[in-house]
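In response to a reviewer's request, we include the raw inputs and outputs for one of the modeled complexes. The two entities were modeled together in a single run.
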Amino acid sequence: MESLWILIPLSVLIALGIGAVFWWAAGSGQFDDLDGPGQRILVDDDRPPLQAVVPPRPPPSNPV
Amino acid sequence: MNAAASAILGAPYTHETIAPVDTTCFHCGLPVDVSTTFGVLWNGRHQPMCCVGCEAVASMIIDNGLDDFYRHRTGYSTKPTDALPALSLPRRGPVIADNAQAEPVVLYLTNLTCAACVWLAENTLKRAAGVHDVQVNFTTHSVRLRSDRAGTEICIDALRRVGLHAERADDAERDDSRLRSRRKQLINLGVAGLSMMQVMMLTVPLYFASGDDISIDARHLMGWAAWLMTLPALLFSARPIFVAAWRGLSVVHVGMDLPVAIALILTFLASSWSLLTQQGHLYFDAITMFVFLLLSARWIESTTRDRAVARIGRMANPRPVVVSRLIDFPRSEASERVESKALAKDEIIAIEQGAVIPADGVILRGESEVDEALMTGESKPVPKNVGDTVVGGTVNMIGSIVVRITAVGKQSVLAQLARLVDSGLLARPAFHGMTEKVARYLAPTTVLLALCGALIWLAIDPAKSLDVAVAVLVITCPCAFALAAPTASAAALGAMAERGMLVVRGHVLETLATATDVVFDKTGTITTGHWQLVDIRCVTAEPDSCLAICGALESGAIHPVARAVQRAVSARLNCDQANGTNNASSQMVAAALSHAPGAGVEGLINGEYYRFGNMTFALGDEQATMMDHAGLDNKILVFLSVKRSGRWTHLATLVFDDAVRPNAANTIAALESDGLEVHMLSGDRPDVVNTVASACGLDARRVRASQSATDKRNYVLALQAQGRRVVAIGDGMNDAPMLAAADAGIGLASGASLTRLSSDAVLDEGKQQLFVCIGDAFARAGKTLVITRQNLGWAFAYNAVALPLAFCALVTPFIAAVGMAASSLVVVLNATRLWSWNRSGS
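The model returned the following structure tokens for the whole complex.
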């Protein structure tokens, strides 16, 4: 039973620590957007851009 | 928009890949003509486009290296209708880089179709100069950034160039404070949850330990640890409850918070006393569980409502209109572009076809037709000539006009309506819900019962008297009472939002359930608000070719009749495509188009001149006497004619009608059979109003025509003076005062923004037919009241069983905790039935 004298205060301290971390995380907006990070990670930003080419418009002609 | 495309747009975030099909537009997915010349070269192949707008947007996206958008999208984009004017707008001056001037800005993205659009928005904005701290939120479709005014305009412009539609939120501070309060609520909830779990862990062993299983010292230690872990829940998380209870006390308005606060404080004090004196039970677990359950119910409720508010915020708002001011009008045509807000009285402005008239004024030059439906309820565009007055907020349909401004700001018609709205909202009777009535008796009863228990046991066994008092307090603790209403309304609001009704203010549910009268607006609410082609009566030609000719004549025009023709033509095209038939005549193009305001349009098709307009315009002196026009009263007739040997020959008559919405008649009948009185008020002419009223089966005694905004408001106030409870439903500016005065005002998503802002709930027609949604809302509100009553009844029943136990000193903390959890669970499960409830299925 003596171990309780260490374990219970320890658990209280850890719980308070977790509470503080949660406080910080929620306060700094970590839970504002729960969908975004999951989608963002799928998109690769590192590729060099391609150039679009708008083809020269052919003169209007009657379709065959 | 065809059915396939709208099905895709309607279901964002579905993970199906889109294979570029050569018959659909690469950008927007609408069908393209095979011979289209629009398109871009991307990924090694030619991607066809339906129009110059899509092409411009797509090349803007690809040129800027944002073409990953096309790789990752899971739905087509919406067709960029406003991209063209944006592209031709002049770039504004250099962007500021001064951080001090940058203020927080919130933009709502209104036409997102999939997650890739959000990515596109984020990357577009990151490249814009002078913008800081861009955060795009996937959940709320909003963008937060820091920028000054010019920078914000550039952001909106940049987004428009890649085909995304952004609206600046009216009030970034309000949005900011909403976000902060959400974070705070979440912290409170999380802390309470953590607290509850820790206390539970420490007290569960004490429930079951018998005799010497746990030493006295260890008991003491665990008790104090539980006490310590209760403090965050009580002092931090429950603070909003205490604040609300105190505020209620100071204005003598008892809500559910007061009995909750009393129960929490007394139980905590008594349990702390037990801990100090080493006698009696500890109820710290009950306290923390109570706080957690209550906060989670409220969190769910406010999340549901916040979502509705955010969706309403994303609906299109009128952006600051840029108008051309004529500097020196009669002498020169020189003009400058100014924001409509900067206009002053007696200034002269030019208004293009299709533009919103920015202020009240008098026409100096030109003639046109003006769509006043949102302002007056008049369904037909009103012809306007030199010397006629125009009202700000209406739309100039046909020609360009020059207007001298007669009123701006507080003197304008719009501002007067806004004042009526404000006064209506202020004068509205205070609403006291069912739970508040219960709460009024709950607080004194709880305390009285606990006191009784203590006094009785003082006579029997003084040592147990405090224990009994606390047990009574814990058992009567209004947990199930406090959860009864928020859980039911959260479930109902969520289900309603899914079906197209977004509730902003919580009292709407109870008001709908207890309403006695429903007041409808006509134009745009009972009717669709736009003209529909209902019939083509041909003299000599085929209906299909007549429609194709009219389509060619009216292509690009914005007049209601033109729009109706365009819709009919595209419906026919889709029909043809579905059947695999290709009608050659559907490809007609008109040349030499000339519009005659108030009369019609003339054009050259395949070498022949056609006219499409009113009788005198289209047929000249030769009237259409040979046509049978019986049964077409109050409908708009438009005549099509062709010029043959110098005379206009009648080809066909097209019949248009502002059609009554589908299901209007059955929904109104259902409401009336539920004992509600249904009224209709309209600004339109009596004959039109009566036609609609009889089509919907409305009682003529409860129908009024030619009503101004003030008339409508007074009608509602008169009903309320008779003790009726009125729900008003409308879409126009002229309905806003009526909605504000009613016990519950319901606006339409497609309606005027002033009306939306003054309403308690907004109907979104995109989800399902409007009247199905209205019927569902009333039925579901009634069901919500029933379920809330059941929940309250259950809470009473639980108390009736458990109180005698508490009085007999048979209640232990274990029984109290189980009882509280079980009774709350029953309440929550009962409430979730509202999610899946259907009127037909019940």
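As requested, we also summarize the result in words. Chain B touches chain A through 52 residues (CB under 8 Å). Confidence is low (pLDDT under 50) at residues 1-21, 83-100 of chain B.
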